[in-house]
Amino acid sequence: MIVGLDEGSAAPASGGSRPDDDRLREECGVFGVFGNEEAAALTALGLHALQHRGQEAAGIVTFDGAHFHSERRLGLVGDNFNKADVIRRLNGHISLGHVRYSTTGDTILRNVQPLFADLDTGGFAVAHNGNLTNALTLRRELISSGAICQSTSDTEVILHLIARSKRRRIIERFIEALRQIQGAYALVCLTNDMLIGARDPIGIRPLVLGKLGSGYVLASETCALDIVGAEFVREIENGEIVTITAEGVQSHRPFPMRPARPCIFEFIYFARPDSIVGGRNVYEIRKQMGVQLAREAPTAADVVIPIPDSGVPAAIGYAQESRVPFELGIIRNHYVGRTFIEPEQRIRQLGVKLKHSANTGVVRGSRIVLIDDSVVRGTTSKKIVQMMFEAGAREVHMRISSPPITHPDFYGIDTPRSSELLAANKTVEEMRQFMGATSLAFLSVDGIYRALGLEKRDARAPQFTDHCFTGDYPTDLVDQNGSAHNGQLSFLSEVR
């Protein structure tokens, strides 16, 4: 990801994540409607269902047959698109929406999507989930030839490439632009008579198609189809472009066929548990990760406790497989926002208790297995282990339902640079000592593939994008100039 070139939803994952935020963050969600007079209201509902993919900004663009309308706001969907007057200003039967999570770059209105431009073919809006790995290179070339960039988003590069194309039809221009970009993308675009959806050639980021009455819906996840009552039709395939017009849905395949490699973190953390991804129920997969973890790393214990909320399904699977009781030994406060002011270090150190509190009646005197989905910096894990001991736990066995994260991401996930990734710098034993746990174990790479119904990872042709665990980046990292292994980018100050 590119610092300064704020991804389809945000800036890059090269050390820009907040030091006190010890969770992985997905970058955004996209949602589009074609052929419904309530398109804007439906889009607001769809974005609400995708709010877990981005909480810092949201935007909607519509077309009413004569004019484009746009509302882009900082903050949550429900805080900005819950008033009738806002929705009334978004007239039209075609609508496009986006929710965003920013990493390094400032949360500023000019970066909020969908981005819109007037082209000689008419208006064009684009919403992007993913990250382009050659966006900075393309941006430099565009600026040197006279382009004027209005945002720090790599998505703007796509608009410029479309605008400069000499092709006659907009779909031809769009395809020509996609042939010049590299990396991960799920795009939904809106013109005056068409909704367009596209996935990158290996399908890293998700996108699904739904049917709603006589119209259609494109969304990042099936949970967004459910909330508006749309029928799931199918996933947009890797390397596929679909155009939705009054005549229906048409598929285009401008790229050579390649095996799909969807992002494995959709199953581990990002997708909502009730979504279906690649034909698999996310909740059931996370339970199976817990089952595999129990088989690989059993321990004598009295109770299995999840770190809520993301650790819950895996903890259920671990408890069922190990026949150890599952209990809610940690209670999460859902009303603590990321904007909470922590002005002093002493208060900041207590911050974990704002979100998580020990259920002392469950924890005291017990040997506990503590389940989480991943470890990034390990700071939160350390505080929670300490909290368990302070609540009277006899032993705290930490179990992680994914492999150690040893490499940064450049495809739309907010990960720190390698120097800040705990597993990139410490052995498992050193991590255990850092956390203060009685024992520590991670699910193996093959174990996570078994949870997905596969025998193991195919080292010659990996079935998923899993570079955070393996270092096997599935595309060229053009802008990183060979620096992907340490996560350091050489252009941190170039574009702000």
Task: Indicate the topology.
Blueprint: E1 25-26, E2 28-34, H1 39-49, E3 57-63, E4 68-74, H2 77-80, H3 84-89, E5 94-100, E6 115-119, E7 122-132, H4 135-144, H5 155-164, H6 170-178, E8 183-190, E9 195-199, E10 208-212, E11 215-219, H7 222-228, E12 231-235, E13 241-245, E14 248-252, H8 265-270, E15 276-277, E16 280-281, H9 282-296, E17 303-306, H10 312-322, E18 330-332, H11 345-349, H12 352-355, E19 356-358, H13 360-363, E20 367-372, H14 379-390, E21 395-400, E22 413-414, H15 422-425, H16 428-435, E23 439-442, H17 445-451, H18 467-470
Spatial strand order of the main sheet: 4-3-5-2-11-10-12
Number of helices: 18
Radius of gyration: 22 Å
- Rounded to the nearest angstrom, the distance between the terminal CA atoms is 14 Å
Q: Which CATH C-level class of the largest domain is it?
A: Alpha Beta
Q: Specify the helix fraction band.
A: 25-40%
- Assembly status: single chain
Main sheet specs: 7 strands, antiparallel
For this structure, the CATH topology of the largest domain is Glutamine Phosphoribosylpyrophosphate, subunit 1, domain 1
Please report the total strand number as a whole number: 23
Please report which band the strand proportion falls in: under 5%, 5-15%, 15-25%, 25-35%, 35-45% or over 45%. Answer: 15-25%
Which homologous superfamily in CATH is the superfamily of the largest domain? Aminohydrolase, N-terminal nucleophile (Ntn) domain
The CATH architecture designation of the largest domain is 4-Layer Sandwich
